[in-house]
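Support case: user asked for a sample of complex input and structure output to validate their parser. Sending the pair below.
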Amino acid sequence: MHHSLLLALCGIASAFSVPRQASNSTKYAVKTPPLTTPWTYTAGTDPWPEYPRPQLQRSQLQSLNGIWTYQNASSLDAINSLPSGQLANEVLIPSCLESGLSGIQGEYTIYSWFATSFDVPSTWTGDRVLLNFAAVDYEATVFVNGRNATFHRGGYFAFTVDVTDYLNGNGQNELLVFVHDPTDSDPYVIPIGKQTLRPSHIFYTPCSGIWQSVWIESAPASHVTQLDIAAGMDGQVNATVSSSGNSSAQVQITVTDRKTNTTVATHNGASNVECTFSVQDVSLWSPDSPTLYDITVTLGDDVVTSYTGFRTIARGEVDGIERPLLNGEFVFQFGTLDQGFWPDGIYLPPNKEAMVYDLQTLKKLGFNMLRKHIKVEPALYYQACDEMGILLFQDMPSLRPSQQRTLDNCTVETVLPDAAQQDEFARQLELLIVQQRHFPSIVTWVVYNEGWGQLVDYYPEFALTDRVKQLDPTRLVDSTSGWYDHGAGDFSDNHHYANPQCGSPFYSIASAPYDPSRIGVQGEFGGIGQNLSIEHLWNVQGAIDTINQTYEIDTTIEAWNYRGHRLLGELLDQVKMYSCSGGIWTQTTDVEGEVNGLLSYDRRVLRPDVGQWQADIQNLYDAAAARNNASMPAGGG
Ligand SMILES: *[C@@H]1O[C@H](CO)[C@@H](O)[C@H](O)[C@H]1NC(C)=O
Ligand SMILES: *[C@@H]1O[C@H](CO)[C@@H](O)[C@H](O)[C@H]1NC(C)=O
Ligand SMILES: *[C@@H]1O[C@H](CO)[C@@H](O)[C@H](O)[C@H]1NC(C)=O
Ligand SMILES: *[C@@H]1O[C@H](CO)[C@@H](O)[C@H](O)[C@H]1NC(C)=O
Ligand SMILES: *[C@@H]1O[C@H](CO)[C@@H](O)[C@H](O)[C@H]1NC(C)=O
Ligand SMILES: *[C@@H]1O[C@H](CO)[C@@H](O)[C@H](O)[C@H]1NC(C)=O
Ligand SMILES: *[C@@H]1O[C@H](CO)[C@@H](O)[C@H](O)[C@H]1NC(C)=O
Ligand SMILES: *[C@@H]1O[C@H](CO)[C@@H](O)[C@H](O)[C@H]1NC(C)=O
Ligand SMILES: *[C@@H]1O[C@H](CO)[C@@H](O)[C@H](O)[C@H]1NC(C)=O
Ligand SMILES: *[C@@H]1O[C@H](CO)[C@@H](O)[C@H](O)[C@H]1NC(C)=O
């Protein structure tokens, strides 16, 4: 009964749980996954009770997470005959259908039906009822009481539909969702990141279905639809309150100091236009001191809460070298390649504790950054990074990587996006920026990873970088992380295994030489592996058979730590001698057939010698600080 928890957490006046009907569907139980984590069997059937959208909270809400019913469908045509009542199998929502936690653990779940029912609490005071999905992979058609309420495309993005006009006056409402997730089946070339229908080594099990939270909330007819708040080191706040309906409603924005619970600024303005105001003597946000301020926005009867952090990301020359600047200073950014895969949940960790465990491990070792690799996480993840002080390189989920396909006439061609697929990639890139730019922890957007889906007959990264900068002028853009670098964006980003080549006067063919007109970073290095006993491995023979594709295997944990020490030492030299401004170690955890994580895939083995890694990482920051020219004008270029 998680709603009582929500009541306690959010001070909600009243909410009711979803009634569970007697069902003839196959009962829900966790399906034993090829590998468990410490949280697999503690997740339970009321998952993710936390408020799912911390960047825009409203008080009257009801979670629809829990047990729904599901059935497989065989084609897109299935959408023309809606099933009624309970479907064949109970399923846990949110989850990936391929995960053990879903209770399905399906394969080729390309077409799916999901059903539940809900009541709208009679105590709700708003005029409208909004239905929210935090993410459905890949396309969702939402039917409320048999009527098509909306369609959404894009597996990583939230959508909201005003369902008021589809509701029954009183009594239960039937919610039915048809999902189509082609992943990398032909002819689809869509943003999928590391998902594939045919997992092998660096490509993993896909995620299909309603994999993030679902909830309804109550709002007045004229309500806040989006908050865009950017706060700089000078105390300036730029805020746009987007609203439904009235384009010129009055809004009030209040900023509160979290520590003292005192109001530090109140601004009155209008909706749908940017307003600017200042807060005096702000405590800045940084990895060492992740201070956040609470925000309350009032628009008529709609009151929403949010938060922000005051910090400025810029790029500037420090002693002749292009550097990323945080609050006017060069801070060496050292992180991991962070895939966000779980053996029991695939794309969604079993619970928040599991999610935060990875972040706490990185923080403990001394990392101040991570590269969220070609995946977008639930909003709670970004909130945790904001609160813990972790800088983020946020990748756009890449298009189906450049595989080859054989045509009917036996011609072999490389799979690349056609014009329409490229346009859809650009549209979803815009969704990424618009939906995630709230979070202060994100410092850099990454457009392409290692050329995957990147056309090279023209250079789309230039126009895409311009668009990203237009939508978000407050952050840096890493246009091409690895491989086809034609000079776009703020970074000269090399990938090289196992040893780094970061801002250095040496490089390997297949990458580009360091370009001193941009910031030199090592977008990926490390990747050294150490095999584990079977109880810590993803126990799928096809995956185990690919472990020998690891760049380097160290046969003992001592050897692995020795090699780690040497590789971090090489990076340290490059910070001292050359123009290295940041590095990304592959990777946070093992994933399926990859055994090169700091943590094993089940999170039960931590490979690093903690003291040694802490010292080696601290040396990187110290070496960079020694090169930080304090006379640099704040804000940079
Ligand atoms: C769903 O149906 C497809 C074909 O219609 C089939 O290939 C697949 O195995 C089914 N998946 C599940 C989980 O039933
Ligand atoms: C469940 O029972 C209902 C009503 O008896 C029936 O219409 C439906 O087909 C049944 N569903 C399954 C999956 O057996
Ligand atoms: C459902 O409505 C959307 C518009 O909101 C439309 O694009 C889609 O084609 C409709 N789907 C069906 C099956 O009617
Ligand atoms: C606010 O907007 C102004 C004008 O566009 C810009 O110069 C400033 O950098 C912005 N501040 C933040 C914190 O985004
Ligand atoms: C829109 O908002 C303005 C300012 O708050 C108010 O004067 C006006 O009556 C509102 N219009 C509608 C149609 O709600
Ligand atoms: C903060 O102050 C407001 C009134 O200014 C009060 O309603 C609220 O309960 C306080 N919150 C905390 C956590 O003390
Ligand atoms: C094979 O088919 C493709 C697609 O129809 C076509 O573009 C290509 O020219 C064909 N190749 C040969 C050798 O016929
Ligand atoms: C890794 O270890 C597993 C057993 O834990 C073994 O089956 C596999 O062959 C090993 N692979 C390599 C490349 O060492
Ligand atoms: C890796 O192991 C697989 C399965 O044992 C084997 O088929 C393959 O030849 C090996 N590859 C290398 C490079 O050793
Ligand atoms: C810092 O930079 C300024 C201007 O680039 C230069 O004149 C000065 O010598 C530098 N100071 C140090 C300590 O390197």
